[in-house]
Write a structure and sequence with these properties.
Blueprint: H1 2-26, H2 56-60, H3 75-94, H4 100-120, H5 125-145, H6 149-172, H7 179-195, H8 197-220, H9 233-258
Helix pairs in contact: 1-3, 1-4, 3-4, 4-5, 4-9, 5-6, 5-7, 6-7, 7-8, 7-9, 8-9
């Protein structure tokens, strides 16, 4: 059963990844993700349905527009593949469980927000703010069906706690990060808090750790200084996903080491 869920989730991830390419390009520009249909930015010709198959179409077209031969960035199939892989890993983690849709949504916004923050150094409210409602609605499903009301309460408190923690950080040290990071922290706190307080702490720590290591590597390579700003959203998202996927095992291992 788990293998079937993983395969279906991966296939679904390919399709979602294709849509995320549209989201990544249009949302930062304030454009609709529904209309107009996808088209070549050079010749403006609409993309045919047969040329809109994730990954495969790019390979068959050899990375070029069918009508004007304009190169198509390999980033498009890579986003589709990354989404499929992330969906498969999340499905492997949760299996056929009512939690799965909520964490597949987290995987989708992880890909979209990571790419957008890298591109434009911004985490759009159009994605982040609705994610509060989406997360709570999707987690309400297992809360109702599996009687996990305590977990849902902890998710709400976790979201509030992580939001408050990040808000305190920018209050103490203005300019250290953007308010978009604070708003994203609340969303991630909901997902991490649902799993456990330990997972929430691990996810927050992992984000800081990954961002710090990246900053140190850039400084050692001479590509950044102490005051250089880097997009922090991708590291928050990566840390959260690490905690979601393996956090419970790491927390249990840590407790075993210290004898709790």
């Amino acid at each position: 059963m788990t293998a079937f869920v993983v395969i279906v989730s991966a296939a679904f991830g390919l399709a979602i990844g294709s849509f995320l390419n549209v989201v990544i390009w249009r949302v930062p520009r304030g454009e609709s993700v529904v209309s107009p249909p996808s088209h070549c930015p050079r010749c403006d010709h609409p993309i045919r349905q047969r040329d809109n198959i994730p990954v495969l179409s790019w390979l068959l077209l050899r990375g070029r527009c069918r009508d004007c031969s304009n190169p198509i960035s390999p980033r498009y199939p890579l986003v589709e593949l990354a989404t499929a892989v992330l969906f498969a890993v999340v499905a492997l983690r949760f299996g056929a469980d009512w939690q799965l849709p909520a964490y597949l949504y987290l995987a989708a916004i992880t890909v979209a927000l990571t790419m957008i923050d890298i591109d434009v150094r911004r985490l759009p409210d159009a994605i982040v703010l609705p994610s509060y409602a989406v997360a709570l609605v999707l987690l309400l499903l297992p809360a109702v069906l599996d009687n996990r009301w305590d977990d849902l309460l902890r998710a709400v408190l976790g979201g509030a706690a992580l939001f408050a923690g990040y808000f305190l950080l920018i209050f103490i040290k203005p300019g250290a990060m953007g308010f978009g990071d604070v708003k994203l922290a609340g969303v991630l706190g909901i997902y991490l808090g649902w799993l456990s307080w330990g997972v929430l702490l691990l996810g927050a720590f992992a984000g800081f750790l990954l961002g710090g290591v990246y900053g140190i590597v850039l400084m050692l390579a001479g590509r950044a200084g102490r005051k250089s700003k880097i997009p922090y959203g991708p590291f928050m998202l990566a840390g959260a996903m690490v905690a979601v996927l393996v956090g419970e095992r790491l927390v249990e291992a840590y407790r075993g080491m210290i004898g709790i």
